[in-house]
Amino acid sequence: xxxxxxxxAAVAFAFVAMQGSLVLETQARAFFxxxxxxxxxxxxxxxxxxxxxxxxxxxxxxxxRRPTGRFxxxxxxxxxxxxxLGSESTxxxxxxxxxxxxxxxxxxxxxxxxxxxxxTGIQFVGILRPARQLQLFEEYQGRLxxxxxxxxxxxxxxQGLVLITLGGNDFVNNYFLVPYSFRSRQYSIPDYCKxxxxxxxxxxxxxxxxxxxxxxxxxxxxLGCVPEERATRSRNGECAPEVQRAVSIFxxxxxxxxxxxxxxxxxxxxVAANTGKSSADLVTNPGEYGxxxxxxxxxxxxxxxxxxxxxxxxxxxPNRDVYVFWDxxxxxxxxxxYIVRNILRGNTDYMNPMNLSTILDLDSRA
Length: 366
Ligand SMILES: *[C@@H]1O[C@H](CO)[C@@H](O)[C@H](O)[C@H]1NC(C)=O
Ligand SMILES: *[C@@H]1O[C@H](CO)[C@@H](O)[C@H](O)[C@H]1NC(C)=O
Prior knowledge:
Blueprint: H1 4-26, E1 31-35, H2 77-85, E2 106-108, H3 130-148, H4 150-158, E3 161-165, H5 168-175, H6 182-186, H7 189-209, E4 215-218, H8 227-233, H9 241-265, E5 270-273, H10 275-284, E6 299-300, E7 315-316, H11 333-345, E8 351-352, H12 356-365
Parallel strand pairs: 1-2, 1-3, 3-4, 4-5
Antiparallel strand pairs: 5-8, 6-7
The structure holds 2-acetamido-2-deoxy-beta-D-glucopyranose (NAG) (2 copies).
One 2-acetamido-2-deoxy-beta-D-glucopyranose is lined by residues 345, 347-348, 354-355, 357-358.
């Protein structure tokens, strides 16, 4: 017979141990997000910048019906991926709520307005450029280690899913921002794309060095077809041809770079997500996917609602679900759902070398 005290201690220990493993088993894998306004969950709310989505009607279809800093009427791409992971949305790294157990969900480091290059988005002032986002990822890992110990922290990061979305702003908010921009005088479109890819590769390598092992890398959308470009760069509302040409050079170079990087690393760490194809599907054939327009933004003013910002005094469409574009640049939640569906289940035209459901399946068996 054991003395009662020891028995109780053993039971208590078993209970704690069981709870510990329950927490680890029921906790969905962590999710880390880097990039620009397509994936920012609200970091810019905490920054001295003009690139912000913290006033109505942003968030009009979000569960709280309030603006959150997401550049969407409702959920954005990372929110919908979190949903698939069976997880709550990641908090912005700058949110004071990101502490304690919340760290286990992951974190969002994205900042609207940034690009691959440091001179992209300078007009927005105080944003988190990629190098800074990666620094904050390191800071996050320190906080996580303080919570669960450094070994466990490394495991959580290694087993996490990462999403990075960059490049769009290097075109619309840099090269094509003004006629005769510095970058357009410096580089032809093909040479600029090559330069962007070289710099993007360095960012991805750094992400790998910091422990990322499953990284979805999105290409850029049909930037020449966003309401803002149609409004300012085309005669009859067709997609702006030179911007479209740039995208058609950039995206294949990105896929090629990712292939090379994976082969150097000897593993499929990086996965090219051709979100540009998903967006192009919607832009080319909105009706086929249940949308009424891909030309006009839901919220904005001027031609195609593509001029200036979406604010409380802008035109606002009554039914967001029939618009591909929410504002002059960003998709509606419904369009984001189509994009994420293809990330999850798309064939190799959409996801290379494999889709997210295959990744989740593979990693759950590893
Ligand atoms: C951007 O700035 C960071 C930090 O200052 C630097 O490490 C990086 O090389 C810069 N990128 C480019 C493309 O100049
Ligand atoms: C993508 O996901 C679906 C559903 O899980 C799967 O059946 C399909 O084979 C995958 N496609 C590719 C090309 O990996």
